[in-house]
Design brief:
By secondary structure, the protein is an all-alpha fold. It has one domain. It is 72% helix and 0% strand. The longest helix is centred in the N-terminal third of the chain and has 31 residues, at 25-55. It is elongated. It starts with a helix and ends with a helix.
Length: 240
């Protein structure tokens, strides 16, 4: 962001010197871009914070109120086993071993819920490298989750990579790797055909899916509710 501001200031100086403009329209235009970018970043930062608060509870009351990946209303964000593991799930259920799956699913979600700090850091790092195009379109669109969708398109790969190590650490703390190995061991007693599933990448993908969905909801609120315009840039851009 700072590099972009320096670049914009440099462009303003070049235009002023080369064109000898006295109208101020170039400066006004560049300042408008800067204000929009500040508002976009502020919006994405607040949306991320709200999403993390919703999906990564910090106390028992949050769980009681139905926050978190596992307990969210209608299991909307619960991370279950991947479609590619349905044969494993069906086999274990058929042999009375379904509890192994249920326990692992619970622990996967608890690990995801314990990853709020990692999610926030990954998204913050991604925002610092984000550049915008079509500023006016992003500011005035009727699509209330346009910024989140743009962020997702531009930064998903970076966020995924940033989350892999810390999320795996949380999964290890919850015993998920051992549970997964045990599930595969039991499955192979019934079906010796090897399976290849990157369970950890899948978990991170599902975590991000939930985060982006909640960010989209938060962005819609930020755009439409004046009380959510907590910075000057947000008030200038979204208040109008």
């Amino acid at each position: 962001m700072r590099k972009l501001q320096f670049l914009l200031l440099g462009l303003i100086a070049i235009v002023l010197v080369s064109c000898k403009d006295t109208s101020g329209k170039y400066i006004a235009r560049q300042l408008t871009y800067t204000q929009m970018e500040n508002a976009f970043n502020d919006c994405l930062e607040l949306a991320t914070e709200l999403a993390v608060e919703c999906l990564c509870p910090v106390d028992e009351l949050d769980y009681i109120l139905g926050y978190g990946y596992y307990d969210y209303e209608d299991q909307l964000y619960r991370i279950t086993m991947p479609t590619s593991a349905h044969a494993i799930v069906d086999s274990l259920n058929a042999h009375g071993q379904g509890a192994l799956i249920d326990t692992m699913v619970l622990h996967i979600n608890r690990a995801a819920e314990a990853s709020g700090s990692a999610i926030g850091s990954a998204c913050s790092s991604a925002r610092s490298n984000l550049t915008y195009t079509n500023h006016q379109g992003l500011a005035s669109t009727s699509n209330t989750s346009a910024l989140t969708e743009y962020f997702k398109t531009q930064c998903s790969s970076q966020i995924h990579q940033s989350l892999m190590t810390p999320v795996r650490m949380k999964l290890t703390e919850k015993g998920v790797p051992e549970e997964w190995d045990n599930i595969l061991s039991v499955y192979y007693t019934y079906n010796p055909q090897p399976v290849s599933i990157d369970i950890y990448s899948y978990i991170v993908d599902k975590m991000m899916e939930g985060v982006f969905a909640e960010m989209g909801e938060a962005e819609a609120l930020i755009r439409t509710d004046p009380t959510m315009h907590i910075t000057e840039s947000m008030e200038i851009v979204f208040g109008n």
